[in-house]
Amino acid sequence: MTSDEIKNPKPKFSEKRSASSGKFSYDKKIIDETLDIIRKNRELKEKSINGDSGK
Amino acid sequence: MATQVSENLKVKVVGKYIFLDNDFLNALFDDEDLFKLSIKLFPVNHMMIEPFVRIEFLRDTFRPEQYNLKADFIQKKVFCEATNHQEIFLGLQDNMLVLSKIYRHQKQAKRISDKCGPSIVDLVLAARLVYYSDSSVLITGNKKDFPARIFDCVGSIVCEDELGVTKVFYVLELNIKKFTECHEQLSRIEI
Question: Under CATH, domain B2-189 is a member of which superfamily?
Answer without folding.
Answer: 5'-nuclease (3.40.50.1010)
